[in-house]
Design brief:
Layout (H helix, E strand, L loop, with lengths): L1 H14 L8 H4 L3 E4 L5 H9 L5 E3 L14 E4 L5 H14 L5 E4 H4 L9 E6 L1 H7 L7 H9 L3 H9 L18
Parallel strand pairs: 1-2, 1-5, 3-4
Antiparallel strand pairs: 3-5
């Protein structure tokens, strides 16, 4: 019986590191995800200058479409100053970025997104599910001028629908 208990504990301890819920230390390291497109590697190189890991997602089944990948999802714990710089760069490589949301709005309760910045999110999710308003050039300039995380996030939240109460009716299912 003791051997079975020991074997079960060993199997459990081997499986736990593979479980996302038990990787606490990795969850708090800011990281950037980029939708695959022909210039994504250039973005990854720029982001690496900020000492952040940048992961280029595998290509989707459908060809990349700038119009379909026009959203930016920002974790509420992602460093705002690095987000400002990354967004500035991203707008040169991802030409149709028009929607921005924080993780507590786009994925309420999802702890793992709090330290992530995602470039090239689903425009359909931004418009249909989250009901976000498109950003103008002036809006992006204001975002770049934010001096602290509170101002940065407040500006983003000011583009949420007035009747949202801070969160969409249903969480977005897609990035």
């Amino acid at each position: 019986m003791r051997i079975l208990v020991l074997a079960a504990l060993l199997a459990l301890s081997a499986a736990l590191p593979a479980c996302e819920a038990f990787q606490w230390s990795d969850d708090t390291r800011p990281r950037v995800f980029l939708t695959y497109q022909d210039k994504a590697n250039r973005m990854r190189i720029l982001i690496s200058d900020l000492q952040l890991p940048a992961i280029i997602l595998p290509p989707d089944d459908l060809p990349y479409s700038a119009n379909a990948s026009g959203a930016i999802w920002i974790g509420v714990e992602f460093p705002f100053d690095k987000a400002q710089q990354i967004i500035k760069w991203a707008r040169n490589y991802y030409s149709e970025l028009r929607y921005v949301a924080l993780s507590d709005y786009s994925n309420p309760g999802a702890y793992r997104f709090q330290y992530e910045l995602f470039i090239g999110g689903s425009t359909e999710t931004a418009v249909r599910d989250l009901r976000l308003r498109a950003w103008t050039e002036a809006d992006f300039r204001k975002l770049d001028q934010a001096r602290n995380a509170e101002d940065f996030q407040s500006l983003i939240r000011s583009h949420y629908p007035a009747d949202s109460g801070g969160a969409p009716e249903k969480p977005a299912g897609r990035r």
